[in-house]
Amino acid sequence: MDKYCDTxxxxxxxxxxxxxxNIIAKKHYAKTWTASQCIYAIYWDTQQxxxxxxxxxxxxxxxxLYGHPVGFxxxxxxxxxxxxxDVMELKRLWIEDGYGKNIESYCISxxxxxxxxxxxxxxxxxxxxxxxxxxxxxxxxxxxxxQGNEIGAADAYMYRYPNTEKWxxxxxxxxxxxxxxxxxxxxxVPDMEYKKKxxxxxxxxxxxxxGERKKFVSSLKHPLVNYD
Length: 228
Hints:
This protein is an alpha+beta fold and 228 residues long. Helices cover 27% and strands 24% of the residues. The protein has 7 helices and 9 strands. The longest helix is centred in the middle third of the chain and has 16 residues. It is globular, with a radius of gyration of 20 Å. It starts with 9 loop residues before the first strand and ends in a 10-residue tail after the last helix.
């Protein structure tokens, strides 16, 4: 049985991009950096006893990145009562294995407190990609609210050029071809392979006070649903 993390040995600090860039770009499943306004580095105190003295030996074991949502419709897709500056997205989370089965949920909960302190964010949104076998277990363990995986105005597709192995996202194809809609892509590359993209599970977490939370919950565009 996996052991629980000794959270007294976890140190979370605000960081700059260059401090955590390599572990995100090389070890996170997306293999890319993303624009982020709140960057937190996760360190492990390698000494037997936790200490904040200058000689503390710590090891960088992960990072959590928060930033403004990329899609311009994202904020209003949550609630018309929200403005752009009210919402942050948890964009990247990567922590090295072997430090306890609850370390990810612990680091999420701690960094959410830091986001609340560092910004005026009222709601944090995040996604779990079923295409990468992610369902959002860590969000459920951190008491996020679930909105299912049926959100989205239209179907999106993954694409693969003929005689290649790698499937590309609709965003990647759009950057290459100037269009990512199925019709437009097939017009430019008639023998392009394609498959419907699984819609991501969507989670939200409120950082605002109880009164604002009540207002936003009552005005949600998409209902909260039970974990399946």
